[in-house]
C-alpha cells in the first residue's frame, strides 16, 4: 500500500483496492516517513515496554495467594480477605504493599475467591407461560383495579385499567365503584370497539373470578369471556412478574393523571384520563399495528348469564411443599418432585378435565404435561341478573 502511494496513486483508490480505511493507509504512510520499506518496523505493537510499569510482579502475586491459604487455616479471627492479607503484608514489612483493591483483583484473576456471583439469565419472552402468546400468535389483555383514590372533598373513586401485552393498547375507566357488572359492561364495549383478544388476564380479585367462599364458583366476568371465546387467565396469588405490564401502566396512569392534577370531580378526572389514553394510543400506534391480530366482535351478540360455560379457564399457580395446587376450592396433586414450583392449570370445560403443565422461567419453552385430572364444573343456574 505504501509503495503504491509512493508511485503516485491516490490514497482513496489504494484504500479501496486493499479494502482498508483511509485512516489506516495514512497511518502506515506516516510510519514509513520516506524511509526504505525494508527498514520500516511494520509490527503493529503499542509503544512502550512490553511489561507495564504498574503490573504486580508474579512473585508478589504468589505471596498474596500463599498468605490467603495461610490465613484461612491459621488466622485467629478467621479472616483471609483482601484487607486481612494487606494487614499481614504490612506486618511482615514488605517494601511494596499493593492496595486492597489490587489484592482483590489478584484473588479474582487467580480464581481464589469463595463468593458466588449471581447468574444473570436472559428474561423469558413476553407471555412465556402461554405458548401462543410467546410465539406472537395470540394477544392477551391484562386488567387490574386501582383502589384507594380520593377526590377533593373526600369522595372515593376507583379505576379499571387495561393494557394489551404485545400491542400496548391501553384503557382506563375511572368510576365511583368497580363492580363485576361494571366490568362486564366496560369489557364488552372495549372488545366491541377494538376486537377480541385470545386471552384476558386478571388477578384473583372476586370482581374478576367470582366468590371464593364456595367451591366451583366462577363469576360473571369469566362467563363473559367464555361466551366470547376468550380464555380467562388468573395469575398466581402474591407473585410478581405476571402482572408486570398492567402494574407498569397503573404506575404511569397514577403519575401522569392522578398525581399530576387536583381533581374537583369524577367527570374532570375522566376527561383528563381520556386525554392521556388518546395520547398514549397515538404514541403506541406502530406497536398496536404490529401486534397479533384481534378477532372481530360477533354481530347481534347478547350475553346470557345462564348459558352453560364452555371453553377453557387457565389458572397459574405455585405448588405447596407437597406438590399440590389449589384452585376452584379444590386441591390437586401435581407431583411430589415439583414443590414450590409454577404450574399452569387448564380447566377444559368441554372435555371435563384439568391439564397440569410445569412452568419454569429458566426454560420457558419446556412446559411438559404432568397430569390430567378428571373434573366436571357444575353448571348450575347463575345467581344474579
What does this protein look like?
The chain is of the alpha/beta class. The chain has three domains: 2-39, no CATH class; 58-109; 125-385, Ribonuclease H-like superfamily/Ribonuclease H (Nucleotidyltransferase, domain 5, 2-Layer Sandwich). 34% of the residues lie in helices and 18% in strands. It has 13 helices and eleven strands. A hairpin with a 4-residue loop joins strand 9 and strand 10. Helix 4 (58-74) crosses helix 5 and helix 5 (82-92) packs across helix 6 (100-109). The relative contact order is 0.09. The model has no long low-confidence stretch (mean pLDDT 90).
Ordered list of secondary-structure elements with their pairings:
Blueprint: H1 2-6, H2 11-18, H3 22-32, H4 58-74, H5 82-92, H6 100-109, H7 131-134, E1 140-150, E2 156-164, E3 170-175, H8 180-194, E4 199-202, H9 206-209, H10 220-227, E5 231-234, H11 244-258, H12 266-283, H13 285-289, E6 312-318, E7 324-327, E8 330-333, E9 342-348, E10 353-359, E11 369-374
Parallel strand pairs: 1-4, 4-5, 5-6
Antiparallel strand pairs: 1-2, 2-3, 6-9, 7-8, 9-10, 10-11
Outline of the structure:
By secondary structure, this protein is an alpha/beta fold.
Describe the structure using short key phrases.
385 residues; 18% strand; Nucleotidyltransferase, domain 5; alpha/beta
Helical residues, percent: 25-40%
What is the CA-based Rg, rounded? 33 Å
Distance, first to last CA: 88 Å
Query: Could you give the count of β-strands?
Result: 11
User: Can you identify the CATH class of the largest domain?
Assistant: Alpha Beta
Structure annotation, total helices = 13
Q: What's the CATH topology label of the largest domain?
A: Nucleotidyltransferase, domain 5
Secondary-structure element order, N to C: HHHHHHHEEEHEHHEHHHEEEEEE
Oligomerization category of the chains in this entry: single chain
Amino acid at each position: 500500500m505504501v509503495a503504491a502511494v509512493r508511485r503516485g496513486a491516490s490514497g482513496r483508490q489504494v484504500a479501496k483496492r486493499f479494502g482498508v480505511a483511509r485512516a489506516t493507509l495514512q497511518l502506515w504512510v506516516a510510519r514509513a516517513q520516506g524511509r526504505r520499506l525494508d527498514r520500516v518496523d511494520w509490527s503493529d505493537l503499542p509503544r512502550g515496554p512490553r511489561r507495564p510499569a504498574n503490573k504486580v510482579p508474579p512473585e508478589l502475586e504468589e505471596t498474596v495467594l500463599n498468605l490467603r491459604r495461610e490465613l484461612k487455616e491459621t488466622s485467629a479471627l478467621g479472616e483471609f480477605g483482601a484487607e486481612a492479607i494487606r494487614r499481614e503484608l504490612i506486618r511482615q514489612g514488605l517494601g511494596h504493599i499493593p492496595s486492597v483493591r489490587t489484592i482483590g483483583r489478584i484473588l479474582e484473576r487467580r480464581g481464589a475467591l469463595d463468593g458466588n456471583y449471581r447468574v444473570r439469565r436472559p428474561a423469558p419472552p413476553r407471555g412465556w407461560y402461554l405458548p401462543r402468546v410467546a410465539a406472537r400468535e395470540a394477544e392477551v389483555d391484562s386488567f387490574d383495579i386501582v383502589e384507594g383514590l380520593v377526590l377533593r372533598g373526600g369522595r372515593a373513586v376507583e379505576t379499571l385499567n387495561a393494557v394489551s401485552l404485545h400491542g400496548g393498547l391501553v384503557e382506563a375507566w375511572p368510576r365511583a365503584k368497580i363492580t363485576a357488572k361494571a366490568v362486564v359492561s366496560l369489557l364488552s364495549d372495549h372488545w366491541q370497539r377494538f376486537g377480541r383478544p385470545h386471552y384476558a388476564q386478571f388477578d384473583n380479585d372476586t370482581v374478576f373470578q367470582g366468590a371464593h367462599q364456595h367451591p366451583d364458583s366462577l363469576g360473571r366476568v369469566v362467563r363473559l369471556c367464555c361466551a366470547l371465546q376468550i380464555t380467562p387467565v388468573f395469575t398466581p396469588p402474591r407473585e410478581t412478574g405476571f402482572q408486570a405490564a398492567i402494574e407498569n401502566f397503573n404506575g404511569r396512569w397514577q403519575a401522569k393523571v392522578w398525581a399530576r392534577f387536583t381533581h374537583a370531580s369524577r367527570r374532570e378526572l375522566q376527561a383528563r384520563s381520556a386525554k392521556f389514553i388518546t395520547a398514549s394510543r397515538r404514541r403506541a400506534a406502530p406497536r398496536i399495528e404490529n401486534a397479533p391480530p384481534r378477532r372481530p366482535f360477533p354481530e347481534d351478540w347478547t350475553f346470557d348469564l345462564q348459558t352453560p360455560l364452555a371453553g377453557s379457564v387457565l389458572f397459574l399457580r405455585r405448588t405447596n411443599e407437597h406438590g399440590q395446587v389449589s384452585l376452584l376450592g379444590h386441591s390437586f396433586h401435581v407431583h411430589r418432585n415439583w414443590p414450590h414450583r409454577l404450574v399452569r392449570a387448564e380447566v377444559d370445560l368441554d372435555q371435563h378435565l384439568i391439564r397440569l403443565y410445569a412452568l419454569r422461567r429458566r426454560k420457558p419453552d419446556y412446559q411438559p404435561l404432568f397430569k390430567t385430572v378428571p373434573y366436571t364444573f357444575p353448571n348450575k343456574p347463575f345467581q344474579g341478573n
